[in-house]
C-alpha cells in the first residue's frame, strides 16, 4: 500500500501544478482583451492561449495548460470561418480560386502579421530560453498564438464571436487588397464580358493621392463608356484589380 502511495505521489509531481497568476497579471490581460474589443467569460482560456510550452516546461505546470490544444482547435475554426466568408462573398469564384485565397489568408506569414498588429507578442508567456532567442518576434510562434486565441474565443463565446473578431481584424484586409495577388479579378471580369459578348473593358487611373512615399491610386473600369466600378490600391495594378472586383460584384448581383 505504501509503495502504491509513493508511485501515486510521484505521478502527481510529474503532472505539474496548475498555472497561477497574480491579480495584476490577470488585470493586464483583461485590459488587453478590452482594448481589442473582445468580450469574454472565461479569462483563463485566453491566458492559456498566450502560454507557450516553454513557459509550462520551465515552471513545471501541467503540460495541457500550454496553448497547443487551443492552437489545434483554432486552426480548424479559422479555416471554417474564412471558408464560409469567401463562399458567401465571392460567388463567382471557383473552388480552386477560393482554396488558393484561403491558403493565403491562413498561412503562417499572414497570421503572424495579424498577431503583430494586435501586439500579441507582448502578452505571450515564454520560458527564459525562448525569450532570449527572440521568441516574441518569431513568426511561427505568433501564428500559433493567433490560432490559439481564435480557439479560445470559439470555446468561450462560439462562432458568432469569432466572426465578429475576424470582421474587425481580418476580413477588411481581403477588401483592402492585401490578397489581391491571389485574386485575378481582371481576368475574371474579362472572361465574363467575353462570355456575354458585351463589349470592351477599359481601365483608367482617375486619381492619385497621398505623399510620394505612400501613394494611393484610384482606378475606374468602364464597359463601352459605362461605369462599372472604382477601386483604390497602393499601385496602379492593385487599384485596377479592386475596380474589377467591384465590377464583378455589380454584374453578378444586379439590383
UniProtKB/TrEMBL annotation:
Localization of this protein: Cytoplasm
InterPro entries attached to this UniProt entry: dsRBD_dom, RNase_III, RNase_III_dom, RNase_III_sf
Keyword Cell cycle: no
Lineage of origin: Bacteria, Bacillati, Bacillota, Bacilli, Bacillales
Every DRBM domain range: 184-253
Cofactors that this protein relies on: Mg(2+)
Enzyme class: hydrolase
Database matches in HAMAP family: RNase_III (MF_00104)
Subunit relationships: Homodimer.
Keyword tags: Cytoplasm, Endonuclease, Hydrolase, Magnesium, Metal-binding, mRNA processing, Nuclease, RNA-binding, rRNA processing, rRNA-binding, tRNA processing
GO biological process terms, semicolon-separated: mRNA processing; regulation of gene expression; rRNA processing; tRNA processing
Sequence intervals crossing the membrane: none
Function: Digests double-stranded RNA. Involved in the processing of primary rRNA transcript to yield the immediate precursors to the large and small rRNAs (23S and 16S). Processes some mRNAs, and tRNAs when they are encoded in the rRNA operon. Processes pre-crRNA and tracrRNA of type II CRISPR loci if present in the organism.
The protein's name: Ribonuclease 3
Chain residue ranges for the region called Disordered: 227-255
SMART domains in alphabetical order: DSRM (SM00358), RIBOc (SM00535)
Annotated NCBIfam families: RNaseIII
Keyword Transcription assigned: no
